[in-house]
Specification:
This protein is mainly beta. It has helices at 10-17, 195-201, 287-293, and strands spanning 6-8, 40-43, 46-47, 61-65, 68-72, 78-84, 90-95, 108-112, 117-122, 127-132, 139-144, 151-156, 161-165, 172-175, 181-184, 206-209, 214-218, 224-229, 237-243, 268-273, 277-282, 300-307, 312-328, 333-339, 345-350. Strands 1, 2, 3, 8, 9, 10, 11, 20, 21, 22, 23, 24 and 25 form a 13-stranded mixed sheet that branches. A four-stranded antiparallel sheet has the order 4-5-6-7, with no helix packed on it. A hairpin with a 5-residue loop joins strand 5 and strand 6 (78-84). The relative contact order is 0.19.
Amino acid sequence: MFLISNNLNFMKYVSVLLLLLLISCKQEKSQLFLDLFAENQEVQLFEIKGYPMDSLQAPDMILGVGDYIILSEPKLNSLLSCYNYKTAYFKRFLSKGQGANEVINVQTMGYCNNEKGFYVHDVMGQSVSTFLLKDTFSILTKDAILPEERICSISYDDSLAFFTKAGTVKHFAVRTNLNKFIDFGNDIYLENKTPEAVTQILQGPSVVSPAKKRMAWFSVYGDPFEVYDFTDFENIRLIRSVVGTLPVFSTVGGMNSAALEKETKLGVSSVATNDQFLFALYNENTLEDAIKLKDEVFYSNKILIFDWEGMPYKVLNLDKKIRSLSYWRNKNMIICLGLDTYLNPALYYIDLGQISILE
């Protein structure tokens, strides 16, 4: 079994935190994720043919599930589009709004229901909507998330929902099929900061392997990374915690302040998995770069490969920059959302056969 590809809307985090930037002395750099890897490989991206690209308007996330490629397009009134590669069926769906069958924004999306469907997490609207892979693409379920739960990202096992929380003592929670919430998470220590301030900033995508009963989480700020085992979901166990370069906090505001300095390095905004490996899109830019580069700051040409023990395997150096990736089980490939030579949206794939460790 193979589940979850999870993408995070990076722009929403950075646009909020740019408002919090303050000037300060630079912090001494600690270890980068890249320092963990002994091997690099140059990788060519291949264009995905057939998708009606002229219909796209600034997509920001990609998901491959079943026979479909699904894209998030936040600037349109219909927030999602899909294309069926068997039938050439194209559709826009999921209206923007606050109605029963609408959402305000798409923060994360990924597979669910044994890859017979997918979910959409709306942070602003405090909801999670699920869909079945049918051409109607109407909402199957829409569950409310209470504001006090402080959920910033979600990933799914078939019977469990894993939440990354913000501004809480414990960083994660799992919701069982009996609607029971169990908090868990290793405490990442930052000098002179409360646990609530730490979890407020260390947000990012998580990904689940139901076959291995493992969950992995990356931060969009700095280089923290953790893997957990949920074989016993009543007693979730930390497998590995890597805490490299951390965000640079402002000294203004005391222990509870979550304001960041402009030197803060960006991290991982998109992650995908199979039963063997994690594929994490790695960003080396800073918040200061975000001011100068604007939307271009979210693109990167580096994918980090870890195994499910949290051990580093290889860095993939792509020949083009991308902003989102997903594992497409039906095609056994990594699909990527990037730009063409004219800076228009483009879809690419990585042939996993060209990566030596996966042969």
